[in-house]
């Protein structure tokens, strides 16, 4: 059984990663454990969240997801838990966070800071930076708009807003979450960071389309997809 630990910035990333690994790795061979970090310091307080699954003999992948509570201190939380994860047989740690609230100009320094001094033995740590927010991935999966509302066509979006989700680079948008809200607002709906809103969007995504068709146009998402590929 292969064990991978994710440390994600917050609720949106946790919901997305949980759904993504379930869709790509296959639910019948997958166990997912969800934890939320509620405190700071050297020993963060964690509580089990959601419907954590108990591995069975057929389980091939055990995925542990730490929700860092909207805190950008993913690196320090990884440092706190690293030795415990190594002793528990985990083979890789993956951190997932938005670039925001850092600026686009700071991406290189942000990535450099995350990796600086991060041990890569005996298990590697990889950081995925969603540029500028994970919602850029949602915007790029343009087929999902029709599942939010049949009237919410890409043509409606491009004719009313300053971008085209099919042909434009959504990683080039500076505030993808606000853009997603503007799209939904065209048909009287909203996008917020509340759990129900995030789940509605993530459940509307076509993960096969993301994984097989769009990933090469989204370098940050492609980095995550490559990590999943490595499990096979």
Strand order of the largest sheet: 3-2-4-1-5-6
Mean pLDDT: 92
Number of strands: 6
Measured on Cα atoms, how large is the radius of gyration?
Answer: 18 Å
Number of helices, where a helix is a run of at least 4 consecutive DSSP H or I residues? 10
**Distance N to C terminus:** 12 Å
SSE order, as H and E?
EHEEEHEHEHHHHHHH
- Please identify the structural class as seen in this structure: alpha/beta
CATH uppermost class of the largest domain: Alpha Beta
Helix content: 40-55%
Report on the biggest sheet. Answer: 6 strands, mixed
Question: How does the SSE layout of this entry go?
Answer:
Blueprint: E1 2-8, H1 11-25, E2 30-37, E3 46-49, E4 61-67, H2 74-87, E5 92-98, H3 107-115, E6 125-130, H4 135-140, H5 145-148, H6 154-160, H7 176-185, H8 195-204, H9 207-214, H10 219-229
Parallel strand pairs: 1-4, 1-5, 2-4, 5-6
Antiparallel strand pairs: 2-3
Helix pairs in contact: 1-8
């Amino acid at each position: 059984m292969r064990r991978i630990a994710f440390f994600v910035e917050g609720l949106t990333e946790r919901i997305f990663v949980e759904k993504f690994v379930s869709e790509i790795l296959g639910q019948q061979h997958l166990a997912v454990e969800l934890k939320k970090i509620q405190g700071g310091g050297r020993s963060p307080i964690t509580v089990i969240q959601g419907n954590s699954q108990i591995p069975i003999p057929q389980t091939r992948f055990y995925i542990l997801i730490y929700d860092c509570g909207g805190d950008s201190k993913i690196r320090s939380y990884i440092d706190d838990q690293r030795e415990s994860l190594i002793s528990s047989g985990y083979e890789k740690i993956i951190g997932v966070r938005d670039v925001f609230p850092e600026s686009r100009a700071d991406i290189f320094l942000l990535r450099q800071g995350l990796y600086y001094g991060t041990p890569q033995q005996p298990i590697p740590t990889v950081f995925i930076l969603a540029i500028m927010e994970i919602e850029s991935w949602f915007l790029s999966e343009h087929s999902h708009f029709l599942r939010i509302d049949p009237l919410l066509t890409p043509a409606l979006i491009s004719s009313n807003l300053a971008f085209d989700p099919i042909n434009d680079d959504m990683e080039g948008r500076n505030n993808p979450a606000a853009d997603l809200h503007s799209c939904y607002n065209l048909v009287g709906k909203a996008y917020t960071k509340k759990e129900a809103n995030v789940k509605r969007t993530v459940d509307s995504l076509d993960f096969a389309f993301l994984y097989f068709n769009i990933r090469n146009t989204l370098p940050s998402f492609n980095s995550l997809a490559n990590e999943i590929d490595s499990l096979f």
